[in-house]
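REVIEWER CHECKLIST
Item 1: Sequence provided? yes
Item 2: Single chain? yes
Item 3: Sequence as submitted:
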Amino acid sequence: MISLFRLTVAGLTAGWLCARSAAVEVALGETVFTVPDGFTVERVAGPPLVDRPITAAFDEQGRLYVADSSGSNDPVKKQLAEKPHRIVRLEDRDGDGMFDHSVVFADKMMFPEGTLWHEGSLYVAAPPSIWRLSDTDGDGVADEREEWFEATLTGCANDLHGPYLGRDGWIYWCKGAFAEQRYAAFRGAERVTSAAHIFRRQPSGGPHEPVMTGGMDNPVDVVFTPTGERIFTTTFLQHPAGGRRDGLIHAIYGGVYGKRHGVLNNHPRTGELMPVLAHLGPAAPCGLELYESAVFGHGFTGNLFSCQFNLNRVQRHELIPDGSTFRTIDSDFLATTNADFHPTDVLEDADGSLLVLDTGGWYKLCCPTSQFWRPEILGAIYRVKKTGAKPPADPRGERLNWANTAVERLVTRLDDVRPVVHRRAIVALAKRGKAAVPALAKRLRRGSVPGRQNAVWALSRIEGDGARRATRAALADMAPDVQQAAAHSAGLHRDAGAVDGLIRLLRTATPPVCRAAAEALGRLGAVDKAEALCGVLQDPASQLRRAVTLAPA
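Item 4: Structure as written out by the authors:
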């Protein structure tokens, strides 16, 4: 499988070869930050609005929901009984970029390790469950708590991370290693596993399925490229492996990653463990964000930004296409020598700036590299901006009438350069259901490549034969990026009608599309047909065969 990914020596060592660029220092209190020339950083929230922020998520109005730790390192059983943590909602009421109002959205929470705002509710991973919190009366406080998914609990912070919303509309989350978990798989099967996983499930509930399996201790954060690829950070990918402990990974459906470990027993694989995308060292990576805006300027759109708890920095990772995967160019983006700065989440705001959450010095529970704790050091939220950059007008689309806009008009929003706006358009069209399919199918025949990709993702969230037929047509799109999204969607829905189109892609497509098509055929149980075509492929033939058989039907 390694030759399929063509991971060169340069790619393997990119984590150690940081790109050099001019940098400037910004002093905020006792902390001196280093950022690239042309950028600035400011503190936009802290005590008493929020004390120890861990993760955060925006709603459609730009209100920020922050998991706020109590600072407790008490044993897990005690924390489960007391639930000392909370979720706060921050607002910037005067529009100056600084948060100035805070309300406790939900108290009595177990250690919250992820936040996602989706369709009017906040999803929070608070072991042993993922909760859906809703404010039904509009007073800023969650009055409904639904246990959306019951997971596992070993007693440490590597149990559960997420959730994360995929381009396909499914909700993804990460399970750490060691705790045994039983789950109802598709087609009535029950699976038992102690390995680390990325799982996914529809927001409406139902069975969940694994995306990848690993021997690492702690998969942490997942982001999704516009083509539907999944990239995540993890700890103890290797141990100790000459300082290459933690990593950034391109998660191929069905792939088995990490170090050799007993938790991988009975998890079939066709060759060696899958390779790492970038080594991060003993970083204890936390938050990860894929930057979608154009506000930072040329070369930043599509970059990844990772929080590295132990190394007191946020790194930039430029994704460079390489065969059917990527390599990275890695460089420090926000860094300090202050050992009390511990970034745990990074997220893009609608204006194109980046928010960085610093949780402070409180955490040490079950972390072998975070034992020099200073609970008196509280956290903060910082904003990194491009100097002189002009944010887009109405960046969240709040002036648009989303509920009453005609489908045809909504479809044009799929081409919008404002990331929040085109994401809201996908959601709005999915809500229209089958009524939106004809307009989406028409959009696939014209418009920009990003717009056509977004049409595929809207169709992916709509059930029915019409949506599947429209997606099949996108397999023949002239743009590889659209083909790749369509292949992922066809595999997700196990669309038997897409087999011929997927086989054609095996013959003619670019390496990333070819791999996505092979994955989809594996999910469809069409291995026999895919293998018959491997002979027409030259260099990657045997590897494609393995990719097909690796993806479970």
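Item 5: Key structural point noted by reviewer: The radius of gyration is 22 Å.
Item 6: Recommendation: ____
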